[in-house]
């Protein structure tokens, strides 16, 4: 039978790992999805985290990961695409694999990406963030790939290999673009259509396509979970218990606002985990 996780924690930074270890300490089974390199690893020295002065960001992340492994937290390297609430559960697209869980904690850090006009409107109707999940829907059709993340050329190659006619849009042509893929320099300014996507606007050009794969290193919060309330600054809105506008979906760390600091992210992770555990126990008030 398909496994139903107690909680899927999206993001393996300080907030996500703090949430995961606190869920474990409450006897819950979380799965952490981590899309890859963590920003904190870029910090040369972190001097403002209580009790651990002078560590590099990378050393600090290693300590956090050791703690998570010690508590048997399961961590998978995968990017969460869209997250859909479905009754008492959530379906989470983890790099093409659909996982089921009873609750979600978002801890994706700050997304520098803003959505473009039409992107959220046409999500699931021509806009996709995952080539392996949705590629087969566009076999034999013209599609655009907007390559913003490091894996985008590979995803474009996959789409071409299954028979999609791929137009690769980026500011700079990747060295490794597969044969048969058309390169178009620029950026997607808007996605337009009627019931489904009909074209993307790239500068003055309207490129007719049945679908567009927007492949960023991180997915903007509003696009990750359609219908999620955001603040004016683009952070995810949450109450003091880190509950978002969607029951069973919590948020922690940089994703829910300032200060953008490790200590706050770790504290948020704790609060989100405790609220989530209460929710799972059916005692949320
Ligand atoms: C150069 C630098 C120096 C810094 N120095 C300090 C300092 O000295 N002191 C301090 O307190 N703070 C410092 N910070 C800030 C600190 O790193 C952040 O506040 C902290 O990492 C936030 O933790 P987080 O878990 O919320 O997000 P992040 O650490 O950003 O972690 C989010 C994780 O989620 C992953 N992710 C994103 N989207 C998805 C998805 N869709 N699916 C799966 N995974 C996803 C990302 O890959 C990332 O690993 C520094 C940051 C930088 C960049």
Question: What's the name of the CATH homologous superfamily of the largest domain?
Answer: FAD/NAD(P)-binding domain
How many helices in DSSP terms?
6
Order of neighbouring strands in the sheet with most strands: 4-3-2-8-17
CATH topology term of the largest domain: FAD/NAD(P)-binding domain
End-to-end distance: 32 Å
Structural class: alpha/beta
Helix content: 10-25%
Mean of the pLDDT scores?
Answer: 92
> Which molecules are bound besides the chains?
flavin-adenine dinucleotide
Mind explaining what this structure looks like?
The chain is an alpha/beta fold and 285 residues long. The protein folds into two domains: 171 residues, FAD/NAD(P)-binding domain; 89 residues, FAD/NAD(P)-binding domain (3-Layer(bba) Sandwich), CATH 3.50.50. It is built from six helices and 17 strands. Strands 4-3-2-8-17 form a five-stranded parallel β-sheet, with helices on one face. A five-stranded parallel β-sheet has the order 9-16-10-11-12, covered by helices on one side. Helix 1 runs parallel beside helix 2 and helix 1 packs parallel to helix 6. It binds flavin-adenine dinucleotide.
